[in-house]
Specification:
Chain lengths: 549, 182
């Protein structure tokens, strides 16, 4: 056979193989590029949704209330689907079609979470009519009931459910020796009460009453007190008001003068510790935790199926551990247990929701919950966040199965240890001064007295808006204002370049360093004041307000 | 028709064509596919690194080292460029405080690769995180240092010229989602 014949035969054999291989590899590459593109679009849509949630809660004075929160979460969901539809419209999908590929959306909040997923509407056939918005057995997309971060504990004489939160606040409901018990509070160690309750010390620092805080509403500065999530401002004529939808709403007069919210925070935590002791809650161990069927809890597993948390036979609520760690610190047994409970709750309920989604969807894909990585769980467990899932889209060689987690650590939901900034007190519009993050080395050289500096919640530096009606023309326009006029420091806010190297993950350990007593006092006072002022469902708001009158 | 010399010439041409068809083109095709896979690896490595910065709000020198190792494992040398656009809200805040119906514009200033590297790796050899905040922007671009094609067989037939001719490149950027220092 001649060489040219051999060559032709070789080409006839090799060329098709080469072309097929070429096409296959190209399609795999396109699939992976499409996957990366879809991941980006999903993350962008999730970020838009959590941003919408933040904007709505910053500008709302009622965002803590349940129905207001549901409205804000649903608005956020709408934003998500609009953003997904916009991003995916290029390939012909609109929001109604894309909803079929979203098995669940999760919003983790301060003390629980919502799951947005479809469910079957159940209506009594006798009350439904043709004019009803929804029919019986109709598939509806909506928020499932709020799920608390809770766990049941059962011993010989105790059967209680403890609800956890993103900080060290817990609520306890259940029975002890058959008698009902119910209380809530913060878990804080190192509190000393003396002098008949007038002197309160935390970690050796005396917590005193402070002057009423002031902030701008529009262009006018008012003193205010925050009670159960609502700010009550004292008007120029001595009356008091709160903001409702941007309008001034007259309130009963409160007692002007010093603000003792920080003192109350530490005092009540000491009382709560006594209550826990008296009711045997401090004796609860991790092995007493049971599921809804009364069975002991299994270990938590990571994405490789290995145990990452084991519920040990150790007390959960040890205020002062043998290694010197206090209950409120990040590495305490309580904190690790709290994170494990929250993770277990989210994992179980989310897996169920996504698995059940197979009953509702018209898409021929088996929906399953993906395994989240450990660093992703860190984001979820320590912040308000949104988890979105998108599954079942065809991307060439395979089916897309993606998720996105976007956390938000600047929100009104929770006052974390890093939410407190230190601000200069010369806060006039002409000379606003600066605010700093804890750990900024600039603070180490300043005289941090209460006359010059104050601790402030970071959300108070965010821009707000309100409607203003011109009295002469009767035209309403929206104005923007900053409650606190201080500017962000260029060493720790605008640009984080000058942080104290001694500041690690434990802010309490940092503030025990010598020479930081003034900073510690400002910080602990602000943390106590802001946390005490947050909305708490278990409180009787009217009773609490009476104590400020 | 062709004499002996002609026949020899034809044989040489045929052998040359045979060599090209049997050896060179299949090899070129496979090396092109290898380039595509390298491009994909580079894109994935850059995406992973940038996404970790966007979701955590900080540039971790350990993650940067992982990026360098992943790029090195493709067998090529790359230029890595990073840019952080830092948002300064103070000028916008001052405008709004003076005129309530105006939302002032924020200022931005950029930190480039050499500045970020100085912050990530200090003079005494320590590594430290570079913290960014929500509203900042971060981007990374990676380019193959060889201007010509990585495929040495391609170079026999043609070569690329010009400083912008990169055969393997990837870039990704986005807004920071959380305050890294919190």
């Amino acid at each position: 056979m001649k060489l040219q014949h051999l060559t032709v035969i070789f080409i006839i054999i090799i060329l098709p193989i080469s072309l097929i291989l070429d096409a296959y590899i190209k399609s795999r590459i396109e699939t992976t590029e499409l996957q990366i593109s879809y991941d980006t679009k999903l993350t962008g849509a999730t970020r838009d949704a959590i941003e919408a949630f933040q904007q709505n809660t910053v500008n709302s004075s009622t965002s803590d209330l349940a129905n207001s929160k549901i409205r804000d979460v649903l608005a956020s969901v709408n934003t998500f689907f609009n953003a997904v539809a916009t991003n995916f419209n290029m390939v012909g999908y609109n929001s109604d079609i894309l909803q079929n590929y979203v098995p669940a959306l999760v919003f983790t909040l301060y003390d629980g979470y919502y799951i947005y997923t479809p469910f079957n509407n159940v209506l009594n056939d006798t009350v439904v009519t043709d004019a009803s918005t929804y029919q019986n057995n109709e598939k509806i997309y909506g928020l499932k009931p709020y799920i608390y971060y809770s766990c049941r504990y059962k011993t010989a004489n105790l059967d209680v459910v403890i609800n956890y939160s993103l900080d060290n606040y817990i609520s306890v409901q259940g029975t002890r020796n058959g008698i009902g018990i119910n209380n809530a509070g913060y878990l804080i160690d190192n509190v000393e009460i003396s002098n008949g309750g007038n002197t309160v010390k935390y970690r050796g620092i005396e917590i005193e009453e402070e002057d009423m805080l002031e902030e701008y509403v529009g262009q006018t500065k008012y003193p205010y007190i925050k009670i159960n999530g609502v700010k009550y401002y004292q008007d120029t004529d001595g009356t008091w008001f709160a903001l409702l939808n941007g309008e001034k709403s007259k309130q009963q007069n409160l007692k002007a003068g010093d603000n003792d919210s920080a003192k109350r925070y530490y005092k009540e935590s000491a009382e709560f510790k006594q209550w826990l002791t008296d009711n045997g809650i401090l004796d609860l161990k991790e092995t007493d935790a049971v599921d809804e069927n009364g069975n002991k809890l299994n270990d938590l597993l990571d994405e490789n199926g290995e145990a990452i948390y084991h519920f040990k036979n150790q007390n959960i609520f040890t205020y002062q551990q043998s290694n010197g760690i206090s209950i409120e610190e990040p590495t305490s047994v309580f904190n690790e247990h709290r994170l494990a409970i929250i993770r277990r709750s989210i994992e179980r309920n989310l897996s169920l929701a996504i698995a059940n989604y197979n009953k509702y969807t018209t898409v021929t894909t088996d929906f399953q919950m993906p395994c989240l990585k450990e660093e992703e769980w860190d984001q979820v467990l320590n912040n308000v966040c949104m988890i979105s899932f998108l599954q079942g889209l065809s991307i060439g060689g395979k089916i897309y199965n993606g998720y996105s987690i976007v956390a938000n650590n600047t929100n009104e939901e929770v006052v974390t240890e890093s939410s407190i900034y230190i601000a200069e007190k010369n806060d006039t519009l002409g000379n606003p001064g600066f605010y700093y993050r804890i750990g900024d080395t600039t603070l180490n050289t300043q005289n941090l007295t209460e006359d010059n500096y104050i601790g402030v919640f970071n959300m108070d530096f965010k821009r707000k808006s309100m409607p203003v009606t011109d009295e002469q023309t009767d035209v309403t326009q929206w104005i923007y204002y900053y409650p606190k006029p201080q500017l962000g420091s260029y060493t720790s806010i605008v640009n984080v370049t000058s942080m104290d190297k001694r500041l690690g993950d434990n802010i309490y350990e940092y503030l025990e360093q010598p020479g930081l007593e003034q900073l510690a006092k400002l910080y602990y006072t602000a943390l106590g004041r802001e946390r005490y002022g947050m909305y708490k469902l278990e409180r009787n708001a009217d009773e609490l307000k009476q104590t400020y009158m | 028709m062709l004499g002996e010399r002609g026949e020899t010439l034809v044989v040489i041409i045929v052998i040359g064509l045979a060599v090209i068809l049997i050896f060179v083109f299949p090899v070129m095709s496979m090396l092109d596919r290898a380039d595509d896979i390298t491009q994909l690896s580079v894109e994935q490595a850059v995406t992973e690194f940038v996404d970790s910065v966007l979701t955590t709000g900080k540039i971790d020198p350990d993650k940067y080292d992982v990026l360098v190792i992943q790029l090195g494992s493709t067998g090529n040398a790359y230029e890595i460029e990073m840019m952080a656009r830092i948002q300064d809200e103070n000028p916008g805040k001052k405008v709004t405080q003076v005129q309530a119906n105006k939302v002032g514009e924020n200022e931005y200033y950029d930190l480039h690769t050499s500045q970020l590297m100085d912050m990530l790796y200090t003079e005494n050899g320590d590594k430290q995180d570079v913290y960014l905040k929500k509203g900042d922007y971060f981007a990374t671009a990676v380019r193959d240092k060889n201007a010509s094609s990585t495929n040495p067989v391609d170079n026999w037939f043609y070569s690329s010229t010009g400083t912008e001719a990169y055969s393997i490149a990837a870039q990704r950027g986005g807004l920071i989602q959380v305050d890294g220092a919190n």
